[in-house]
Amino acid sequence: MARTALKDRPSHRCSECGLTVGKWVGQCPECQAWGSISEVQLLTPGAGRAHGPVTAPALRIADIDVEAARARPTGVGELDRVLGGGLVPGAVVLLAGEPGVGKSTLLIECAAQAARQGSPTLYVTGEESAAQVRLRAGRTGALDPQLWLAAETDLGAVLSHIDAVRPGLLVVDSVQTIASAQVEGGAGGVTQIRAVTSALIAVAKERGMATVLVGHVTKDGGIAGPRVLEHLVDVVLQFEGERHTTLRMVRAVKNRFGPADEVGCFVLGDGGIQGLPDPSGLFLTRRPDPVPGTCVTVAVEGRRPMPAEVQALVDKSQLSNPRRAVSGLDSSRVAMVLAVLSSRGRLRLAECDVYAATVGGVRLSEPAADLAVALAVASAHSGEPLPPDLVAVGEVALSGDVRPVSGVSRRLLEASRLGFTRALVPVDANASAPPPGMRVTEVADVGMALAAVRSLSPLPGLRG
Fold this sequence. Notes:
Blueprint: E1 9-14, E2 20-21, E3 37-42, H1 77-83, E4 92-97, H2 103-116, E5 121-125, H3 130-140, E6 147-151, H4 155-165, E7 169-173, H5 190-207, E8 210-215, H6 228-232, E9 235-240, E10 247-255, E11 263-269, E12 272-275, E13 294-301, E14 304-316, E15 324-327, H7 331-343, E16 352-358, H8 370-382, E17 390-392, E18 395-396, E19 402-403, H9 408-417, E20 422-426, E21 439-443, H10 446-456
Helix pairs in contact: 7-8, 8-10
């Protein structure tokens, strides 16, 4: 009896994360998305083994030209820092951020800088008219004869513009507004986003054209669209900032060509966006006399140490459940520090409202800021200020121990450069010599830190 031909067997795949399962389920077991599982056809084992044409012959690894993969500076120094030197030809970058944070302003400046270097640049806008973008570019001085602008929402039209301009840099603002006539569904849908992104990536790789795609974010801060979108692109950047402050930060979430933990700082104003090579002054308050409830720490964002001020306010509560309010800090870590202060530091905080915040809109999420939070709360509780030339760095454990953190020498060097002369740091057997002119005190636990501060500047309300 003749052997029947093998057929493709049906299966199911998640449109968000790409997970393949044997049967339909309502919620994806991997990414927890609802309604994202749909049926697909998978080839049976042994199928699809036919030989196909190769696009380029295999070469010895030593014979491959590496110049094609070297980054070209964009002309925006802080963006180059995050990208690892600049944009690589053929690389596809996804820049995500909340509406109104300044993504378009940053990218029109980046496109203008690339055009001034002699490379044709194409800026495709799907959210605004060409006249609106022209007005913004004129206001910020981002005009150049080599900068081309097109307002399109159809993928075919975008590809035609690419053929006509032949740009070295393509900016698409945003990928959720572009739709393909060959794919069902409206613009912004999962299928459309995947198809449009795949087509633009193929063109970018074929032409060696650096491409920047603007992406929207969801309510919880994640990148809108399928999660596979982040896997398709080469670089994922997160653009952050509060509407009521001028500070903006670009963080590298994924980077195939450079560090994935770097951060760039910008100031957004009426005249456009400007990089901040030294943003330390934004996160510190200069005052003639010290006030209670403030302590300076040194955070490390990527490879950059940045001194930041932590402020706290402790007041007698009139509520049965005292209020805890946090801004710019991790609320769970602040709650843990308060519990440690109550248990290990003997501070009566159960009947007090406690407020903790940072200065300048910076967000401190690393545990190295725990010690500064503890000292700021203790200072606010006692009503006595800390020494103005003191910085505190260290992670506070539930046991009350002050645990070592990475990059202490870099943190202290930056603090010394800004004029701080005293520091509280964790005990570290491998610690290097402190910077000249800085007195460093090692503390093993919170009680020792409070006692050390008391000896530096007497605080009647603190007991070690």
